[in-house]
Amino acid sequence: MTTNSTITTQPQAELPRKSGFLDLRSPGLLAKRPVIGLIIFIFGLLMFGALTYNLYNQGPLLEWDKVIANTLPAIALKSPAYVKSIMDVGFYIGKQVLLVLDVLLCLYFLLKRYWPELAMAALGLSGAGTLFSALSNYFGRPRPPIQVSIIVNLPGYPSGHAVSVVVFYGLLAYLLVPKMPSAFWKAVVVIVTLLIIAFVGFSRIFTGGHYLTDVLAGYAVGIAWSGAVYTLIELLFQKIMPRRAK
To answer: What residue ranges do the domains of the chain occupy?
Structure first.
């Protein structure tokens, strides 16, 4: 005697797809925890405020500015040509190379229709440039008396290169770190980012393009601007766009 049995299978839930390495989407951390962006903004603002107070009140850091501005550019003048060329690379990494990379990033986000990321890449750097222009013209601080290789006549406080590298390369690290397969590679991205930022700042001091406090103030403005604009953009798009599938 045979019995017929019906075997039914439950449909399996579709597993979420993991985004690929080149799928540069924002991790959304600042929208989930906006207090992080607020802390970053406040830290940068306090840092810039302290440096500006030092500038207006002839604080002790100005003596360091004078010593370094009289020492490093003098060393640069006596250095072999290849040293000057290496230092000049910092100028281009912090300006021309950065602009090209930002345009490519914006085009990528535009083609992929990644609107929050497009806003971060476009408004982050363009806003940083506007902010630098307004602040440097307001303070009107002359640049060091000795400039090597590349001569710039615009006011130097804060450093525009320092603002830009923090805003752009910081965003790039923010997008790339979650894509790294291990803690080691996440650390590599962070360390490389910090080295680029430090190299650009040092190169501008070494070649006499800026005083030390110009560069530190630029870092501070970049930190504050990044914390504010990237957090606000993520929060805004979280409200106006449906939540992405993870």
So the answer is: 29-238
